[in-house]
Amino acid sequence: MPNVPIDWASVNWLYVILLALLVFLSTLIGTLISFRRAILGAVLSALLFSAGFIFWTYYPHTLPLPTSPVRQRTIAPPPPTPSPPEKPDNPVKDVTPPSTKAQ
Question: Rounded to an integer, what distance in angstroms lies between the CA atom of residue 18 and that of residue 56?
Answer without folding.
Answer: 10
